[in-house]
Write a structure and sequence with these properties.
This protein has 23 helices and no strands. The chain is an all-alpha fold and 598 residues long.
């Protein structure tokens, strides 16, 4: 390999580090969900306390954030190969400044307000609490940053790197000193000993406050990992050593893990025991990190692809959003007094689903992107044909996810809801504890259905030129959307709620779309799916209560029938929107290439 090629390879992003970063942040979200059930003090917690939760949390607690700081340091190392100190500073400010400000002003206050209500320190007046929090009295106590402390630390540590970049000779001397120190098997023992020493000496004195000022143990650990990643990210012998001794690291981690799990549930509180506990935690900490880095470098370094690129962009917005989504979900779901396994599963699904939904929204809105840590859109190019149609179809593809989340939250907020005998509309009725959740969700679903219908009709016109069929398809969805939205204004059992029946008009849409697409030979799967969807809805209609086969669906199982019907009715539209969007995208690419000069 030539020198130029080697330099180019060294300065490129590494897929293994991106995979590790994505996985570590995913574990962080699950970690915070688990804290809801732990004996530790968190912002808002479940009524359930699980005695074995400390042992579970200790599996990732000692190493996860340290690994993230190390990977973040490695990422800025690759950045510095292409930029001056001023450019790195500007990039860091643009990347971290707006999200930190937005999070402190928008995301964290929601968490803190819920915590205040939960502790009985404040009522339900959010605006009043907000004025208090950011008023003179509240500001005297400081501005809470909650989970954004990590962003705060990364921002400050990035400034350290910018200062070091002003002295390239110093960076080379530090790298020249550190690289031999961790060569060969020392890649396991030297970092491990460092973590043991600071854990035994600094942690008993300073603890870990996440407060930036005076958090000396945390800086020794986190800034140390950040600089470690920065200095060695492009030093290939370091990665070769990690790969070579990765099995040693796994063996060491497994050897101390039983001791670590035992210690997590046993708190004698004496100096000798605490010292041994700290040492075991530090050993386990680096052993797991070394194993992850070694195996990642060995097997994931070139495992790039669209999934990784999507998750790499999504992970920072997900991190920003997840704790606020989780706190809101706990506040809404806890009154339902669900079993721990069901409640925890719902919280995890809602936290991941809600965070991904936020990401999917903000990534499409140019002025929101910087506030969520995303790069601004590139200078506008001439849009491909049918971009408006495709956006509407994307709304249709995401609508079932929105409906599912609203349904899960509504059920969780309705203790004792009987899925067998109760209608879905009762989730928004007078007997529901929080009917506004379901009704707002139904209203939004109606709006999304109408927009989806416009996208369907518009797309059929683009693909076939069948204007009448396209208009009729759009009209069926618009009418259904009106029925859904209007019904939410008249909650059950108001007789006017039955305007929701207009939503059944969606049943004829597959036939209209099939007629419009009849001459297209390149969408056989879409046609087959539309036939299947119509057939499924027709079969369910045969069993409608008191209709064709009376008695099959009765008062004891009508709820299950309606749930199945709603799933098919809403689900087919989402899948069809996704398939039609792909067809329109292919048509747009074909027409765009046809108009591009050779």
């Amino acid at each position: 390999m030539t020198t130029t090629a080697a330099a180019a390879a060294a300065s490129s992003r590494r897929a293994d580090l991106d995979w590790i970063r994505v996985a570590a942040f995913g574990l962080l979200i699950l970690f915070h969900t688990a804290l809801v059930y732990s004996p530790y003090d968190w912002h808002i917690q479940s009524e359930h306390r699980l005695s074995w939760m400390p042992q579970l949390l200790t599996l990732t607690g000692p190493w996860r954030l340290t690994l993230l700081f190390l990977v973040s340091g490695a990422a800025i190392s690759f950045m510095t190969t292409r930029r001056t100190p001023g450019e790195v500073l500007q990039a860091r400010i643009e990347r971290l400044g707006p999200p930190l400000l937005m999070g402190v002003l928008l995301l964290v206050p929601i968490q803190s307000w819920i915590e205040a209500m939960d502790n009985g320190a404040w009522g339900t007046d959010y605006l009043g609490w907000l004025g208090h929090e950011f008023g003179p009295e509240g500001l005297l106590d400081g501005v809470p940053v909650n989970h954004l402390w990590f962003v705060n630390y990364i921002a400050v540590y990035s400034l350290v790197i910018v200062v070091l970049m002003l002295r390239p000779d110093l960076i080379e001397r530090l790298r020249g000193w550190l690289a031999p120190l961790v060569a060969g098997p020392r890649v396991i023992w030297v970092p491990l000993l460092y973590l043991v020493v600071i854990r035994l000496t600094l942690y008993p004195l300073f603890g870990a406050t996440n407060g930036l000022v005076g958090d000396w143990y945390n800086h020794a650990q986190s800034l140390g990992a950040f600089l470690f990643g920065f200095l060695l990210a492009r030093h290939e012998p370091f990665w070769q050593a990690l790969e070579q001794y990765r099995r040693w690291a796994v063996g060491l981690a497994l050897a101390v893990l039983p001791i670590l799990v035992f210690q997590a549930g046993y708190f004698p509180n004496n100096v000798i025991y605490d010292a041994s506990k700290f040492a075991i935690q530090a050993i386990y900490q680096w052993a797991v990190i070394a194993a992850i880095l070694g195996y990642g470098s060995r097997y994931l370094r070139r495992r790039d692809g669209p999934v990784l690129r999507y998750l790499t962009e999504a992970v920072f917005p997900l991190y920003l959003a997840h704790q606020t989504v989780l706190a809101v979900a706990v506040w809404l779901i806890r009154p339902a007094a669900l079993a721990p396994v069901l409640e925890a599963t719902l919280l995890a699904l809602i936290t991941f689903g809600g965070s991904f939904l936020i990401y999917e929204i903000v990534r499409r809105v140019g002025w929101l992107r910087p506030a969520w840590g995303l790069k601004p859109f590139a200078p506008a190019r001439p849009p491909l044909p049918f971009s408006g149609r495709r956006r509407l179809l994307v709304i249709g593809a995401t609508a079932p996810v929105v409906v599912l989340i609203v349904f899960l939250i509504s059920v969780a907020a309705y203790p004792g809801f009987d899925h067998a005998s109760q209608y879905l509309s009762e989730l928004g009725g007078t007997e529901a504890r929080y009917p506004q959740i379901f009704n707002i969700g139904v209203f939004l679903s109606g709006v999304m259905a109408a927009l989806t219908g416009i996208g369907f009709g518009w797309a059929i016109m683009a693909l076939t030129g069948a204007r009448l069929t396209g208009l009729m398809t759009a009209a069926a969805f618009i009418l259904a959307g009106y029925g859904l939205s209007a019904s939410s204004l008249y909650p059950w059992p108001d007789p006017r709620h039955m305007v929701i029946s207009l939503g059944l008009g969606i049943q004829i849409a597959p036939l209209l779309m099939l007629w419009g697409l009849r001459r297209r030979t390149d969408v056989p799967r879409l046609k087959l799916f539309l036939i299947s969807a119509f057939a499924a809805m027709a079969v369910l209609t045969l069993f409608t209560k008191h209709l064709v086969l009376p008695g099959t669906v009765n008062d004891l199982n009508v709820g299950w029938w309606e749930t199945a019907y709603a799933t098919v009715l809403i689900g087919w539209a989402g899948v069809a929107a996704l398939m039609l969007e792909r067809a329109v995208r292919a048509e747009a690419a074909q027409r765009g290439s046809a108009t591009t000069p050779a």
